[in-house]
Amino acid sequence: MKHLALTTLLLLGTASMLRAQQVLPLYKGNIPDSKPSEVKETSITLANGGVRISNVVQPTLTVFLAPADKATGTAVIICPGGGYARLSIDHEGYNVAKRLNEMGVTAFVLKYRLPNDQSQPDKTTAPLLDAQQAIRMVREQATAFRVNPNRIGLMGFSAGGHLASTAGTHFAHPVNSKAGATSVRPDFLMLLYPVVSFSDSLAHAGSRDNLLGKNASAAQLHLYSNELRVTAQTPPTFLVHAQDDKTVPVLNSLVFYQALTHHKVPAEMHLYPKGGHGFGLHNQTTQDDWTERLRNWLAANGWLSR
């Protein structure tokens, strides 16, 4: 009987894990801004166990349901970084989702399409199409996910922070105008060492070139410099960055915070003197835990109330 009970518990645990990590296609039927190609998704595992995905053709959402006894009804969609060339899907995706679950937040890791001329007629819009569709999907299926459709946040790391800040500033005119009337405005933003600006002095050149190409027009650079797109309707924002970030200058966060302040959008920013770029959940140079600062911010805004 003890063996049977143990087996039952293991099966229940496995079922719960499978449910928590359900992978859902982002679109039903045809994927917008896609064309037939020989592009195939690739995944590599690094020596440290990290997983990097590139050449995404079929975008998905991986669902991490908050435990029933902790669930707050708040949802966060996570956009991993990788310079618009790859996705750090575990380091800035799955691991973060599990941390959010501990706060009672249901998390969705977005495997979004990376800009690719071979598989997309317009590579500049494919990532934003996917981010907006993720918000639309979670909002429309809020009952099934047991979340509040008015408490859906978007989190992005590095280039994923550029995607999140684009979604947070370009929602008034969705790129897929045929997708229906459901709002694609995130209710709040969380940007971690984000690419924000495509100006020459601030841009992460790799992210900019991968999204817009090396010969982007001045109009395109302006359109995707998101500090220039902030309005009073931009969602409340939480920012984290390290001063010694040599990949994405800390000024990206500072100019976005300045624009939010100018438009009287509530914002909270945490800057560390050290930490470099891409530290994920743990900035090894400090005992401070930015996820606890995030928890406090979420609670202060009522997003952790049940």
Would you mind describing this structure in some detail?
The protein is an alpha/beta fold. It has one domain: Rossmann fold (3-Layer(aba) Sandwich), CATH 3.40.50.1820. It has nine helices and eleven strands. The protein has helices at 2-20, 90-102, 126-140, 142-145, 159-167, 205-212, 218-223, 251-262, 290-300; strands at 23-25, 42-45, 51-54, 60-64, 75-79, 87-88, 106-111, 152-157, 188-192, 237-242, 267-272. The strands form two sheets. It has an eight-stranded mixed beta sheet, sandwiched between helices. The radius of gyration is 19 Å and the shape is globular. It starts with a helix and ends in a 6-residue tail after the last helix. Residues 1-20 have low confidence and may be disordered.
Topology of helices and strands:
Elements: H1 2-20, E1 23-25, E2 42-45, E3 51-54, E4 60-64, E5 75-79, E6 87-88, H2 90-102, E7 106-111, H3 126-140, H4 142-145, E8 152-157, H5 159-167, E9 188-192, H6 205-212, H7 218-223, E10 237-242, H8 251-262, E11 267-272, H9 290-300
Parallel strand pairs: 5-7, 5-8, 8-9, 9-10, 10-11
Antiparallel strand pairs: 1-4, 2-3, 3-6, 4-7
Helix pairs in contact: 3-5
Keywords: Hydrolase, Signal
InterPro entries: AB_hydrolase_fold (IPR029058), BD-FAE-like_dom (IPR049492), GDXG_lipolytic_enzyme (IPR050300)
GO molecular function: hydrolase activity
